[in-house]
Amino acid sequence: MMEVKEKQFTAELEAALESVQTDQKDKLFSYTEKINQVNLYRFLEKAAQLAFPRTFWSSANEDFQMAGAGHAFELSAEVSGSRYDQVEQDWNALLSDAIIYNPYHTSGTGVVALGGFSFDPLKPRTALWRNFPSSHFSIPNYILTQIDGDYYFTINRFISYEDSYASLLEELQNNRQTLLDNRGQQNDTSVLRIQHKKEIAPDQWKKTIKKATDVMKNTSIDKIVLAREVRLHFNQAANISDILKRLVDTQSNSYVFGYEMGGDCFIGATPERLVKVKDDEVLSTCLAGTAPRGTTVEEDEQIASNLFEDPKNRKEHNYVVQMIRSTMETYCSEVSVPDEPVVHQYKTLQHLYTPVRAKLKKEHGIFSIISGLHPTPAVGGTPRQDALAFIRDKELLDRGWYGAPIGWMDSNNHGEFAVALRSALIQKDEASLFAGCGIVEDSIPESEYEETKIKLMPMLSVLGVD
Ligand SMILES: C=C(O[C@H]1C=CC=C(C(=O)O)[C@@H]1O)C(=O)O
Ligand SMILES: [Mg+2]
Q: What are 282-304's pLDDT values in tens digits?
């Protein structure tokens, strides 16, 4: 730390400890400074060396990235009905007492909570997701934020009145130095290989699709999203920071995330924004309907125009648009939704895409919108409760955090959540990958199976070769 900054830091820390002691109440202390460029992936490596659980977020156009180390404070709610309310209440309570030094007021700096939810709190949790509760948010001890090429470093420390100034200062300064040290070995050079790949019950999955289409022919259910799992075994433990870097480098137009809990890490590169809130501006995205990429420009365009015209994919997409529009109208004003989707291209596939814009009504926040939107028919179905009941009952998979909201929010009430698709739960030298498809009445099991294969490709390619 430069000397003038160091003086500022020690003065703020001293004042914070004094406030905690005077009030006899533990409080979160948060200090943000602007720093020179630091490699985010190196920061994550150093965090692992210090045994800190890691968090990572990269927005779809990479102009905003956060890497977190440690949990200064955790928000977690196991309750099902009100888990959003519970997290929101605990978050507001934490903020109301927090001592924040942040002259920049830039999104994603200072007191930031990163975290997410499980897909369905009513589905019994299996051993696979033992480290991931129904909801969990972390205010990391140390956050490195990159915005438009500028770098910020935040220290968050929950201070108890029993803490001593000298040991606090030593702890925070030592960790700061280690985490921001760009020297040392670059990323691991050993090659991650897939030694064993097991598709979990693909034939049964296709049978469940047939069951779903039969149900849709005979009931008022219009759409059910069904997912499946692929389990991998590697030649060595996967290097999380390396994989996150590879996802950012290869998956354009995608949110890349990482969330480490109890040694397991949930990672992904998802194209789907659930909601972004900045002041009163709200953005959401309807994404459903899929086709592969072509090998030539002509073929690519032909596939795109077929996707745009295809009634089955348009149906899948329209259920999402209808539901997101009506939910947004509950929480927002000036809801604007284009009449038709466009085709968006990603590395291995193309999607039908409809952006949504709105203005947040004063009485609502990001959690109200999340609770209204999740699960959209891009991951659940229509009508929601019937589709969820089918998934809960018939899908073989424990989705855990797959298909659920994952993201961040800060003390300025800015935040963004994506839908955790194209994701994997990494467990040292093993991983579970997830992919699902929107099933409508005219779905063909074999084609849906092919669709999951292209959705799995990006993650398989960053996790090594067969
Ligand atoms: C459920 C997934 O994708 C959803 C998002 C976009 C397109 C979809 C589709 O065309 O089926 C799915 O609704 C997944 O990737 O696991
Ligand atoms: Mg589909």
A: 999 999 999 999 999 999 999 99
Q: How many Å lie between the centroid of ligand 2 and the Cα of residue 378?
A: 9
* Cα–Cα distance for residue pair 14/163, rounded to 1 Å: 11
Which residue type, as a one-letter code, is found at position 271? P
262 dihedral zone (left: phi>0; alpha: psi -120 to 50; beta): left
What is the distance between the alpha carbons of residues 356 and 353, in angstroms, rounded to a whole number? 10
Residue nearest to atom 1 of ligand 1 (CA): 436
Instruction: Kindly indicate whether the ipTM for this predicted assembly is greater than 0.90, answering yes or no.
Output: yes
Residue extent(s) of CATH 3.60.120.10 domains in the chain: 194-462
As to burial, measured by CB atoms within 10 angstroms (0-12 exposed, 13-18 middle, 19+ buried), residue 280 is middle
pLDDT < 50 stretches in the chain:
none
User: Is the distance from CB of 151 to CB of 145 less than 8 angstroms?
Assistant: yes
Query: CATH assignment of 194-462?
Result: 3.60.120.10
SS3 228: strand
Q: Which residues contact 394 (CB under 8 A, 6 or more apart)?
A: 208, 211, 212, 226
Residue 223 appears among annotated catalytic residues: yes
> Residue 125 carries which DSSP code?
P
Residue from 223, 245, 276, 315 carrying the catalytic annotation = 223
